[in-house]
Amino acid sequence: MPRIRFHAKLTAVDSQTILRLPLAASSKLPSRGMSVVEGTFNGHAFQAALEPDGMGSHWFSVSNTMLTAAKAAAGDAVSVALEPMTRWPEPKVPADLADALASDPQAGRLWMDITPVARWDWIRWIGSTRSRDTRTIRIEKTLSKLRSGKRAACCFDRSRCTDPSMSRNGVLVEPTTAKGKSGGRRSRVVASRGALRAETRRPGDR
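The chain above was modelled as a monomer; its predicted structure follows.
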């Protein structure tokens, strides 16, 4: 498919700079769920996992390295060109899930046999809660379902924002214009769990 090109303003939630895709650009993606893309950000190559915002569009976190390369900051407009990746990169497996899989060889074997997209889905479902107890239960359910031969997670709405540090009730919290400012109301954010953050890449990098 042709590259999706657009301009958008960088915003922030507390200390995290993000870019929210215009609806017209997001609508050209193949899925309302998460998409993994590559392209250019102010002319610099990058890859990112686009998380749904729960309102029909997508967003991604922008690293400080990427901001420096693009000479941009929250509040600035940037030029973006992107396209979905045909081969998804492997997700970062959270330590608690990795330990659980290592302790259950049967579930671990199927985990390694499913697609990267399916692994991303399981991790998103497990991580889409603020409750440690719920997270533990979801890891146990994941192992149980894998042992029974279930290859894909089906227990969550893929079009909702599943990063609990950046969302409320499956919807991205309203960003602020300037990084670190919240218009008198504190935005809530903690480290993202298991997400592929946008990163700059040199042409030819893999």
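The CA atoms of residues 103 and 164 lie 27 Å apart.
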